[in-house]
Specification:
By secondary structure, this protein is of the alpha+beta class. About 35% of the residues lie in helices and about 20% in strands. It has helices at about 5-25, 55, 75-85, 90-110, 135-140, 145-155, 185-190, 220-230, 265-275, 305-315, 320-325; strands spanning about 60-65, 65-70, 120, 160-165, 170, 175, 215-220, 245-250, 255-260, 265, 280-285, 290-295, 305, 330-335. Helix 5 (about 135-140) packs across helix 6 (about 145-155). It binds zinc ion.
């Protein structure tokens, strides 16, 4: 959207540069941000915010809404970390997020990605990874903007090129907000199992996570239309309290399978069908429908962001966090 307002953008970037100068007395070294104006107006380029040498060697085509923007990998990753993890998190957690995001990006590029010849990756969190431009992030951060931007940029720069490898190959480094005390194996959530995406203990502290426990209620009619849209063969002839049964859960309570109107479905399908925050759920009758009680947020596979925060608070560095959440991996510099 801001691409249609080049004047406002330049003003915003100037303000950011000015603000960056004031951040210097805090002892924070803010990298030089490159040119003020895009090199090519028809293919605007995000201002470079990363001086990592390995990351700078890879240029990405990033689909942002309707526009494809070119930027180096480091600059792209700063935008991902801004969007994907609270910038107030400990530096080692931010670094773990930066390395996971770098690895996920390289994996996407090497596996062909979701956008064919149009772009390498997009800014939609439901498709690839969330991404936010510097000016918009700093607007959202308000008074903490300079400090947060510096923290995020440092997390990317200080892990320049570092990638999570399994057998020397970049992994599908998926991550999520918070698990239910244990992550989930890829095979329990999606179609195929991956050796490095296994269930591991996750230490997220429930009391400090917003909406760690959530509750959502549905009338019988709401449930009926949501279920039949996904499972048209489900038999919903009785009362709503009889529709869900026989949940098979893992050790942390995430639903692997459950019977819905006589049809066995995955817990993740119920999560999607009802818009639950995770597949760790229980239910009880409410009115003529059901209320669902849900723990955690996200698919539960790979790095838990709140688990990473807790590990960092307890002294773990980003490599320890990553090798905990991804089984049998190494973290090493890698050039795609
Ligand atoms: Zn995408």
């Amino acid at each position: 959207m801001r691409r249609k307002e080049p004047v406002r953008q330049s003003v915003a970037v100037s303000l950011v540069l000015l603000a960056a100068l004031f951040a210097l007395p805090l002892g924070v070294i803010v990298p030089f941000r490159g040119e003020l104006a895009p090199k090519d107006a028809s293919h605007p380029t995000e201002e470079s915010v990363s001086d990592g040498r390995l990351d700078a060697g890879t240029v990405l085509r990033v689909l942002n809404g309707e526009t494809v923007e070119e930027m180096d990998l480091g600059t792209y990753l700063v935008g991902v970390v801004r969007a994907e993890m609270p910038a107030s998190f400990p530096e080692e957690a931010l670094k773990a997020q930066a390395v996971a995001a770098r690895t996920y990006t390289i994996y996407k590029i090497q596996s062909g990605g979701n956008h064919g010849d149009t772009a390498d990756i997009c800014t939609d969190s439901t498709c690839c990874q969330a991404w936010i431009a510097q000016d918009r992030a700093m607007e959202n951060w308000g008074a903490d903007a300079e400090e947060y931007e510096a923290r995020v940029e440092a997390a990317v720069r200080d892990t320049d090129g570092e990638t999570i490898l399994y057998g020397g190959v970049p992994i599908l480094a998926v991550f999520h907000s918070s698990s239910a005390g244990m992550t989930r194996a890829a095979g329990d959530v999606w179609v195929s199992d991956l050796p490095y995406l296994q269930a591991v203990d996750s230490p997220e502290p429930e009391d400090s996570i917003p909406n760690y426990y959530s509750r959502v209620a549905f009338t019988a009619e709401e449930l009926r239309s949501a279920i039949l849209a996904v499972c048209p063969e489900a038999d919903l002839s009785g009362a709503a309290e009889t529709w869900f049964s026989d949940a098979v859960t893992d050790a942390a309570g995430s639903v692997e399978t459950v019977t819905v109107g006589g049809v066995t479905v995955k817990g993740t399908q119920v999560r999607t069908m009802l818009g639950l925050r995770s597949a760790c759920f229980e239910w009880e009758p409410e009115g003529d429908g059901l209320a669902f009680y849900v723990t955690g947020y996200g698919h539960g596979v790979g790095l838990s962001q709140y688990g990473a925060r807790r590990m960092a608070e307890e002294g773990a560095d980003y490599r320890e966090i990553l090798t905990h959440y991804y089984t049998g991996v190494t973290v090493e510099p890698y050039s795609p």
